[in-house]
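Practice problem: predict the structure.
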Amino acid sequence: MAEFGALIFPTDYAMHPVELAKAIEERGLDSLFFPEHTHIPASRRSPYPAGADLPIVLPLLDQYVVITEKMRSN
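Answer:
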């Protein structure tokens, strides 16, 4: 059972997941989690519940595809 770990939303702007996993392991952490965000609106027809404009949504990367692509390039 994991005691300490890290969680990150993998985006174009974040550290690459494979490099992050190596850094986490080097620091003694034993797990890395990649959540998914399944509720990003496709249109702006309904108002944003918090008011004002919808915040900028960062492009989330599919965690399995990113790791596979990195492994293939090595």
